[in-house]
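Here is the promised in-class demo. Please do not try to memorize the tokens; focus on the logic of going from shape to residues.
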């Protein structure tokens, strides 16, 4: 089933000029980048985006990190894109990420972990809608 997922290339990665290398891993995995924009997230956008983590001890640090440098927001399309991208990203903590995954290759720590990907198709729709209009996405 062809579906879409939402991706963010995070500040630790944009700061180190890794956008192209991460996009190469995404494309080699068979996922198509059907929308992409480099933005500076506002504090309000970051707080809304991570609202489910509001009560976690790392919430403030997470929001500060996400607004510290530009990010690249993306829509990825492909077979089982949500699960496929989670495989390609690897475990949240890079110390536990499998060889060849984006986080194993590039992430610095559990916080500075280079990429975000939606955890379900329902959340993908919500996250995509926060950053893209339907006309921005060219499949
Ligand atoms: P992400 O997939 O963007 O969703 C929530 C984020 O919270 C996660 O990636 C991590 O970057 C971050 N996160 C999770 N656990 C911790 C932690 N213990 N300390 C700092 N950040 C964390």
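The designed amino acids, position by position:
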């Amino acid at each position: 089933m062809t579906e879409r997922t939402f991706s963010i290339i995070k500040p630790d990665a944009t700061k180190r000029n890794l956008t192209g290398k991460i996009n190469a891993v995404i494309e080699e995995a068979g996922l198509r980048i059907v929308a992409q924009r480099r933005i500076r997230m506002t504090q309000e956008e970051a707080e809304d985006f991570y609202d489910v983590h509001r009560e976690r001890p790392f919430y403030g640090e997470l929001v500060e990190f996400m607004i510290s440098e530009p990010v690249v927001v993306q829509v990825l399309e492909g077979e089982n894109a949500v699960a496929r991208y989670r495989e390609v990203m690897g475990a949240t903590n890079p110390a536990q990420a499998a060889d060849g995954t984006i986080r194993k290759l590039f992430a610095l720590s559990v916080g500075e972990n280079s990429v975000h990907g939606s955890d379900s198709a329902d959340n993908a729709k919500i996250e995509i809608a926060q950053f893209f209009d339907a006309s921005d996405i060219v499949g």
